[in-house]
Specification:
There is one protein chain. This protein has six helices and six strands; from the N terminus they run αββαββαββααα. With 186 residues, it is mainly α. Strands 1-2 form a two-stranded antiparallel ribbon. It has a two-stranded antiparallel ribbon with strand order 3-4. It has a two-stranded antiparallel ribbon with strand order 5-6. Helix 2 (25-66) packs antiparallel against helix 4 (120-148), helix 3 (84-98) crosses helix 4 and helix 4 crosses helix 6 (173-182).
């Protein structure tokens, strides 16, 4: 008799072998294996969500840091970046303007450029434009992150890119307001 046939109906339980497989024993093992497979699938799915959100967060941050071009009252257009240092400088400039300053110095992120003076009008325009730009991107990212967490397949999660046009029902009232104010959807 083969070993397989000899042990076919015996199950090890504790310190002894049972002569007969208990009713439902194999079904319980199959259920446990299915649950384990389901949990592994769920873990993989959540891993994809976490990686996607991390990717989108980095792109959002870099988009904010890159800043944007803002036209000045003299007809020139300047690139204003929004690195963390720039964001701190904006706060200081806003305080100076609130205190009545008619011009403020702006220190370019580009170390090959000299500092410049911005008149009150240009400084207020720059501060309000950059603040709205930053707030828009933070709001868009938050709504995008919430949306990604509602997706049910890895393929759908992987298809999302920064700048993806969110469905209206996935947009917060704040994002909708920014889109109206900025005349933009991303």
């Amino acid at each position: 008799m083969s070993v397989a046939k000899l042990w076919a109906n015996k199950v090890y339980e504790g310190e002894k072998f049972l002569e007969k497989v208990p009713e439902g024993y194999l079904a319980d093992v199959e259920t446990i294996l299915e649950e384990k497979k389901s949990q592994e699938s769920s873990d993989l799915y959540h891993y994809h969500i976490l990686k996607k959100v991390e990717e989108l967060d980095k792109i959002c941050e870099q988009t904010i840091f890159n800043g944007l071009d803002i036209p000045l009252s003299d007809g020139t257009v300047r690139r204003f970046t929004l690195t963390e240092r720039d964001q701190l400088n904006l706060s200081g400039l806003a305080i100076k303007l609130l205190m009545g300053a008619e011009s403020v110095a702006w220190h370019e992120d580009d170390e090959t450029e000299h500092c410049i003076f911005l008149n009150r009008e240009d400084a207020l325009n720059m501060i309000s434009t950059l603040t709205a730009y930053k707030e828009y991107h933070i709001t868009y990212f938050r709504d995008l992150r919430i949306y990604v967490n509602t997706l049910t397949s890895v393929a759908d999660v992987e298809a999302i890119t920064y700048g993806f046009a969110l469905p209206e029902e996935a947009k917060s009232d704040v994002l909708k307001t920014y889109e109206q104010l900025l005349g933009s959807t991303n």
